[in-house]
Amino acid sequence: MLKILLANLICLPAAALCYLPVRDRLKNKSMRTFAAILAGLFAMIGIMSYLTWKYQLRSNDLLPAVFPLCFLIYHFSLKLPLRKTLGVFSVVVALLSILTNYAACFDAFINPSSGLGTYTLQFSLFQLGITVLAAYLLGSPFIKYGKFLVDQQISPLVWYALILFSAVTACSNIALYPLTYLLFHEEMMTFNILLIISEQLLIGTLMLIILSSSISSTLTISKMKERDRIYEMQESQFQSQQKYIKASEKTRHDFRHSIMTMSELYHAGNMEALGEYLDQYAEVMPKNEIQLYCGNNALNALLNYFVHVTKLNGIRFSLRVSVDDELPVSDVDLCSMTGNILENAVTACQTAQEKAIQLTILTEDHTQLYIVAVNTFNGTIRKKDREYISLRHSRDGIGLSSIASTAESYGGVAQFSHEGTRFFSNVAIPLRRDTEKQTS
Hints:
Elements: H1 2-8, H2 11-19, H3 31-54, H4 63-76, H5 82-110, H6 121-151, H7 156-176, H8 189-267, H9 271-284, H10 297-312, E1 316-322, H11 331-349, E2 356-364, E3 368-376, E4 383-384, E5 387-388, H12 398-409, E6 413-419, E7 422-430
Helix pairs in contact: 1-6, 2-6, 5-6, 5-7, 5-8, 7-8, 8-9, 8-10, 8-11, 10-11, 11-12
């Protein structure tokens, strides 16, 4: 019974690997949730061990029932779409299947007469030890890179391919596990099995590294495009300002003549002509289209751009901005979140009867940054796996997911909801000066 219990304890490090990349996506982050998950794991391990011992079951006999049950508990404890939870879960299961075969190869040398269903102390200890070691070594990469992959909005096909590869790996390793270790001693069978599972481990690792690097490169390009877009807005704002300055210079140059004309009309007592002259002069006065909403040049350029866009589209735009001049949030990320919110709002207003956007950006007590927007839309929505889906495309609302991902990288949150024909976007980010953004 003890040997079986030790073998089943691998569920603990496996659960740790499953939750490390998604620890910020728990539906309930209280200690009660953590305690309930831990208690459930120990209960499952106890039941599995007892049933295996009582009915002399083989190690694989309970897998068809245990894996689906564990996955359901895992999936419904998280705020993530099915493909992502299944992707992380299947990767961990595939890793466990490889480690179990490593333990079997080790045990075959120590106990050649044993095999599947015969738990030896050496097998149980080696399997538990190598699993704990793997969890220790992979803990940091799972936290950093695993979270990075989960947070990014990549094509669902990538996740499906990862799930398929992991499922094939797990099934092939389960099939490789021998009924008797005597097969391991036939014609270098152990060497061949070690070679196969090592190749699977290497291919899986390389696949995840390439995937992570590819997504990182894509995001870098996206950031560069965002930065270029901000620079273009700032350049446009600069050109408009230069145009206003040149027009103002001409007006100031002609001002002396205008004063003389108005003085002559006044002393002549021709008030009607003076009034008409003032009206005409006011019309030709240069108007500055650039407004100063805040001290952040990048954000100011973005807001001026969308003020112009909303005017062209006949959208009533209410704006309130009160932010610190210096923020621990980069200009690119701040403008990316605000720009995505406003782009979605402008698009949504196109089909709304009443076109209106309200945007508030403010810092509260120098400790919190809030970006709050309310926009009208036609009332039609699509949701999948608790996420809003773009009505223009057959894919996820990438803009909203990008906002959430960026906010979370600073320890903040982004929430989206709707009521009737109004859509709400709420972003809150703590402004701790010592906060370092989690880089990928």
